User: What shape does this take?
Amino acid sequence: MKREPVLDVRGLRKRYGEIVALDGVDLVVPAGQTLVVMGPSGCGKSTLVRCLNRLLEPDAGEIWFEGRNLLSLTPPELAAARRRIGFVFQHSNLVARLSARQNIALGLIAAGRPVEEALEAAETALDRVGLAAKADRRPSQLSGGEQQRVGIARALALSPALMLWDEPTAALDPLLVREVLDVMEELVRDGERTMVVVTHELSFALRAADRVILMDSGQIVEDGSPAKVFTAPTSLLGERYRRLLESLPGLPAEGGGRKGKGIRAAGANAGTVPRPAPRPPMAQKSGGGRPVRA
Amino acid sequence: MRTWLTEGLAPLQDGFLRDLGRLLLVTVALLSFLSAAAAWAVNAYFGRTVSGLIGGVGEYDFMLHVRADAKARAERQLAAYLPKAFPGARLKPGLTVAGQTNFFLALPPDLRTRSVMENIDSAFSSIPGYSGHTTLVEPSIVIHGVASGAVRFFLERFERLPGVAVAFADGRDLVVAVERNHKPEEVERSVKALLGQYRLVEVRFPMGYRVPDLRQAGEQVAEALNRKFGGEAGNKAQDVTRSSRADDSQSFLASLTEMRRFLLSYASDIVVKMDPGVNLQRGDEVVVGQRIPPPGSKLGPGSLRVMITGVEGRLAHGVAVQGDTAPPGQSSAEGVFPAGRAFRVKPGDKVGAPVGTATIHNQRYALMATVDESLRLLNQLQLLAKHADRTAARVQLTLDSYQETLDRLAKAQSTLEAAHRGLSGPLDGLGKVRTDEIVLVLNRTVAGIDDLLGKMSGVAEAKAAMDLAAEAAGPGLPQTDLLSQIIGKINPVTALLLKWRAQAQSLALQVGNFGLLAQNAGGVKDFLGDLSKATGSTLTAMQAIDVPKLKADLEEISRRLEGIAQIDVDSVGRQMRYVRDSLPDLKDEELGRSVRLIDRYIGGEVIPGERLQILVPAGFPAKQVSAEVRAAAGEKVSTAVSPAGSLKPDLRGLLFQVLGKVRTTVAGLMAVALVAAVLMLDHALIISALRTGWKSRRLPRWWTAGAAAVYGAGIGATLLSAVFALSGAGLPFIGWPAVAALGAALGLLTAALAGRLAPIDVGELEAGQAMGLSYARMLREIVIPEGRPGLLFLLNRREMIFPQPAWGQAGAKR
Assistant: This one.
């Protein structure tokens, strides 16, 4: 059964002066799909994800979300649409003066929920990411990983149809990356929402992505399942990723992803990466293997 | 454009515009209050200080100035004197400033009369150290510029105005004291209106023109004006001339002119007789001397340089402006000596062409020569008096002898006549002639004549000495002339006496020889007859001289000569030498420089001569009045029509006016400072946030920068103008447009520096956007609480979902 697309991006363009960040990007994301966007730094992947909820204004194109073009909405309509799109930033971007709970509740109250109810919902969201005990702490009293988890809870609290992730682990200490990735993989396993994840975490892409796109110079150069993109690339960039994958030990040679198909590495040293196993509650401290990063 | 506007205004939606409006209202109200309060505090402080210095408004009438060293004595005397002279008056010691202590004096209402007010100085002149007063009567109106002759006229009329308590002259000003229950403004209007009914016509005569009777001249002019323009009483011109009145500048200019005249009379007058074809002008410079370097040479430092001050025909007069005119040797009694040739001075201080021959006339040198000559004459005079006295004494002796000789001659004549009669009969009559008696009488008479002649010889000797002294002394004494006249009257007798003496000696010889007499009786008889006749004529000649009168004259001469002898010639000589030595030793160069300085100062200003002052009704046409005055007083007069007087602010009024300026200036400065602070604390944050919001939208960069500038300028201009208006602030030399411009400038500066003054955490804003918060909500919840604590921060607290617990949390992130 063909699923309805949650997001339909058409001919999206964005320039920073002379630099072309997005050069006519077309992208359709079906409901429930986990799309991982990868590519070298400066290829336009962050610009793409920030344009998707209009944190950045694209120069041209269309962004259809739940049947409405985001670029033609009035500010209140846009605000309402944004509440359906969760966003996790590279830095958590928590409001410094508010506690973790208040940070989460703020969005709910803006959506019209009573304060008390919003605070309770925030508590629940924090519980999901394993930080209920630190609900009253301010961001400065939390570790980087905890801050990022509060950021995730803040996005989740609004029950978004689409979640956008802008390199959520890029600013973290390697020791803290795992706890964030665990949360992310848990969300993938839930399969409740569509996700567009910009990341350099190759292991995450291999284990959790339904679909991977590679971007280069503002264009999508590879688009397909992780197996297709990383084993039979059609672009130079894809080829480079394939070689990289071959050179890394312990990665699945084939299969992977939520469908359990795995990826067969083209290289001789290619291994398998076990797909994420259900591990409720999600907030439990990660004890899995060391994350592998590209 | 519509999109830009929509997008641009988007951040202000969701109630933020209302928040902004409320912020502006509160800001204006608070800042106006603070500015006004600061200004009020300053005003109150300085007002109290001023009141301490010169008393409160209307509290005192006079401030009496007393030398600080006499303060204690003055205070004691005032305490004793005041209750007697001014019962009910109050006195309060004031501050001591610059060696002068002040006492405030308040008079009771019944003593606030014109007489008391005008004679306050004379009333307190006996107080030790008293040095004058300052009038503090308030409320009052002060008028100045009223002609002194019109003061009484106006005072009387001022006092008739409603609301005027008393009007009096205070120095050159007129003070109109206003009754407490009247508004000074109303009285001021009345005073102005009264002054406006008159004009003062000042008629000036040319310099040097002497008006024999100013009052008469003034009345004539006034009459002429009344004939031409006057109507009923009260609409007539009147003479208010006061000849003694001269203002300070006139006196000063007149003094300078007199000084210039004195200097010119004291300085050498160097007269250049111009060569044919030469034309020297006033102000030209020439160099004068016996040895002038050839034309074209540079002038030496010792050259006598002369500035021409006037030209009369072919003679140019000048003063030395460099070098001195000391005479080469002894100057003449007139102080005139030749100075050689004169040459024009060319630019660059070079000798020019010859222009004439110069002589130097110096009254100073003439005076010195005269004093020297007088000293010499004084000594000669004493010698002359001495000789005259001696001569007079000898004349006195001569006159005594003269009288005796006259008696003897009379006796001789009677004897000779008797003998002559005896010889006129028969020969036997010869026996009756007593020859021995004749001889004795003749011999005695001859001896008397010899004595007289001897004394007359002494007189001649003394007179010769006196004449010598008189010749040395010059004009001599009148007494010596009288003496010479007396001597001249006696001298002609000498020849007769000598002749008679010879005849008498001959007869005596014959009579002594009786034999010869007997043989020649006829000859003797004839001889006797001749001698008798000669004696008669001699007697007649001698008796013609009024000896008693001469003696009386001689006594008078002696008395006068005695007076001269008593003169202390040494003392007189000393005084004259002192006068000579104390003549100012001013060099011509210095005098010339002073004259040049005075000329430069007065710059050709004409020193006004006599003047008339005529008070005319304002209805008299000014131009025609001038014409009529000239017709009456002469064409050479100049006329000026001026207001009869003008109002001037009183001291306290001026002071409080200044304080008012200070107050508004303080309020203005406070307003500027507070508005600048509000702009930096509150609006910099708003501008920064708006700019961040605009940047994320599809707006051109120029729009973002321009909108921020417009916002800053608009807010700055609005805030400052409103605060200025409400707090009554003001800044010197700055009007309302400039105030608005200043506010706009502050706003523009704030907009330019907003990024540095109030940086925004873009990440938090993006998080807010991503959560679907409106822009206003983001400002309230994220931006403002983390900004600097200001009014915006305070007002925002009630708008926040999660209010800030305390001030201390403000800007916690930073």
Q: What stands out?
A: The first strand of chain B starts at residue 62 and ends at 67. Chain B touches chain A at residues 10, 13, 696-698, 761, 763-764, 766-775, 777, 781-782, 785-786, 801-802, 804, 809, 812-813 (CB under 8 Å). The two ends of chain B are 38 Å apart (CA to CA). Residues 808-814 of chain B have pLDDT under 50 and may be disordered.
